[in-house]
Amino acid sequence: MHHMNGAELTIALLERQGITTISGIPGGTNLPLYTALSHSQHIRHVLARHEQGAGFIAQGMARSTGQAAVCFATSGPGATNLLTAIADAKLDSTPIVCITGQVHSDMIGTDAFQEVDIYGMSIPITKHNFQVRSAAELLEVIPQAFELALSGRPGPVLVDIPKDVQTEILEFADWPVPGQAAAIAPCNARALENAARMIAAAQRPILYLGGGVVSADAGATACTLAENNDIPMVTTMMALGAIRCDHPLNLGMFGMHGSKKTNLLMQEADLLIVAGARFDDRATGKIGEFCPQANVIHIDIDASEIHKLRSAHIGVHGDVGEALTQLNTLLPQHSRPEWIGQAKQARRDTSTVVALTGKDQIRPFELIRDIAEHVGEQAFIATDVGQHQMWTAQHYPFCRNRHWLTSGGLGTMGFGLPTAIGAALANPENPVVCFSGDGSFLMNIQELATLAQEQLNVKIILLDNQALGLVRQQQSLFYDNRLFASEFAQAIDFVAIAQGFGIKAMRLTTTNADTLAETLQQPGPCLIHVPIDRREMVFPMVPPGAANTTMLEGECHACA
Amino acid sequence: MPAPDTRRETVLELRVNNHPGVMSHVVGLFARRRYNVEAILCLPVDDGAQSDIWLLVNESDRLSQIISQVEKLADVRTVVRHAEDSCLFADLRQQMYGGGELKESA
């Protein structure tokens, strides 16, 4: 018989899940868990400085590895601070298991000190959640939490454990089997045969890849389908890196800040083969005018995504990788010289228009390309949310699955730094670059302390325009240039701030740009502060709510 | 003049795990997806390990979508969409309200 309390059991079950790193912050109601964790030989704890940071550190581990990662928070404010990171994980289908302490069971519902109904609050933003009622339940709940987080379409799971459950002594005979992703039912063979026929008959098909292709690691399979059948590929922002950016059939990112030629070519498609994507509005623009001539084959692991926003002529429910593999066996080679010629022309023309600013300041897109050259293909790239994120999505030459870490669905400012920390913890051999903007960076700047403590190889490229850049851009373009509350009047000395946290820091300008390579090569963390012109905008751009054919290109707005 | 309300009602029958919070998962999903639930009936089955929930909802184009979302809930075992209007809620209404007035419970 095994004899231990609920907290010790929880840690033992996490060890059996293969967890080696947990991010979190202790507090009154999870102290038994922390005491048990302090005795663990297998799990190290990374002390975040804010629970949202802990949640994103877990996301960085999960997104970069595909494995479920764990974070801890105490009850009340600790738990509510996790919510944004959980919602972010839900919208981008990221498997994390969040374990919160809760007040003593007898006090639940009494408005006790640091009590909130985190179970109730997290229902809409988790894939599933639990409130554990006894130590014995943990034997079932912890493996189930991992199974749910990883199975099918991945997502966040929250486990709320009252303090008395953590201290309850339990005797039990057998360990449960660790939770893992459940087997996926095979795709409907008939639907795939119909899909193959539809693809063979199409004259202008496009393979539309979404984040599900990253989860399924199905990029190579998609490329085979494209190569054998002369089908151009496009990716959503979430699918960047799933296929090499230099693949001759990759037309790159489409959508709000995608390439204009790609958006226009898509309008001519007579068939969209949509793999692991959900027709998000940032990708489709005004959906009623999106690819109006195209039939749709929609492959998704989540059945409820098929027909949700756009009716599919053929819906294939199942693993994207398996579906594409089967399509490859069903489809003999097929050539479409005219269409592929058009696509390759569009690819040649996809250079993005960027507004020019003075020569005395660094241009973001040039800097992003330079950094890619210096850090190489092994680097993980995290971003915050804003103009720098869109410039990185447009210009960074992504080549590897799971190396692009960005907040897509929720668009969470503050995502970048803690997620970069998580990626570095899970991949200590690889460099990690975090592109951020000053607005985003300020939202989780306290994690510089975590980074300094862990001495991880994270380079922060802080593009500072003293503004909420995308907000300012929208005000410039669509709100009569009324720039209100989108500029920061108070300049911040980010170099001094970083140094105060114990992080090396430098300011990069045109006069010392040649030191960039050397700085990036030095091991350990470093903040590279890059002042940029706040008039820089992200172009091209589809105005919010407009069709993808309505792209602003920038020249006329360059001097806004 | 507004068009007459011609919406038909449908009954969804859900078999769910029975523990605190399950009802919030189910009805919260409807609320979040802007879908009104007109009536709810819930009874424990299987010695209380599971429950059956009957939901009276309006037919709409979005009903299939909300059903597939409900099917994703971890505690929902099965969902049955009754093709015809179930008499369940009509009978209940009749018993409780008779000809339209709430009966006094003597």
Automatic annotation (TrEMBL), chain A:
Residue stretches making up the Thiamine pyrophosphate enzyme central domain: 192-327
Gene Ontology CC: acetolactate synthase complex
Annotated metabolic or biological route of this protein: Amino-acid biosynthesis; L-valine biosynthesis; L-valine from pyruvate: step 1/4; Amino-acid biosynthesis; L-isoleucine biosynthesis; L-isoleucine from 2-oxobutanoate: step 1/4
Stored NCBIfam families: acolac_lg, PRK08155.1
Pfam family name, one: TPP_enzyme_M
InterPro entries hit by this protein: Acetolactate_synth_lsu, AHAS_TPP, DHS-like_NAD/FAD-binding_dom, THDP-binding, Thiamin_PyroP_enz_cen_dom, Thiamin_PyroP_enz_TPP-bd_dom, TPP-bd_CS, TPP_enz
Enzyme's top EC category: transferase
Thiamine pyrophosphate enzyme N-terminal TPP-binding domain span: 4-120
Keywords: Amino-acid biosynthesis, Branched-chain amino acid biosynthesis, FAD, Flavoprotein, Magnesium, Metal-binding, Thiamine pyrophosphate, Transferase
Protein name stated in the entry: Acetolactate synthase
Organism: Desulfuromonas acetoxidans (strain DSM 684 / 11070)
Cofactor: thiamine diphosphate; Mg(2+)
Keyword Ligase part of the UniProt annotation: no
Chemical reaction(s) catalysed: 2 pyruvate + H(+) = (2S)-2-acetolactate + CO2
Signal peptide, first to last residue: none
Domain Thiamine pyrophosphate enzyme TPP-binding positions: 384-530
Molecular function GO labels: acetolactate synthase activity; flavin adenine dinucleotide binding; magnesium ion binding; thiamine pyrophosphate binding
Record note on cofactor: Binds 1 thiamine pyrophosphate per subunit.
Homology family: Belongs to the TPP enzyme family.
Enzyme Commission (EC) number: 2.2.1.6
Keyword Flavoprotein included in the entry's annotation: yes
A biological process from GO: isoleucine biosynthetic process
CDD domains associated with the record: TPP_AHAS, TPP_PYR_POX_like
UniProtKB/TrEMBL annotation, chain B:
Residue ranges of every copy of the ACT domain listed in the record: 11-84
Domain of life: Bacteria
Gene Ontology cellular component list: cytosol
Position of the signal peptide: none
InterPro entries: Acetalactate_synth_ssu (IPR004789), ACT-like_dom_sf (IPR045865), ACT_dom (IPR002912), AHAS_small-like_ACT (IPR054480)
SUPFAM superfamilies, A to Z: ACT-like (SSF55021)
Pfam family, one: ACT_AHAS_ss
Enzyme Commission designation: 2.2.1.6
Gene Ontology molecular function: acetolactate synthase activity; acetolactate synthase regulator activity
GO biological-process terms attached to the record: isoleucine biosynthetic process; L-valine biosynthetic process
Catalytic activity field: 2 pyruvate + H(+) = (2S)-2-acetolactate + CO2
Complex and partners: Dimer of large and small chains.
Name of the protein in its database record: acetolactate synthase
Natural source organism: Desulfuromonas acetoxidans (strain DSM 684 / 11070)
Taxon lineage: Bacteria, Pseudomonadati, Thermodesulfobacteriota, Desulfuromonadia, Desulfuromonadales
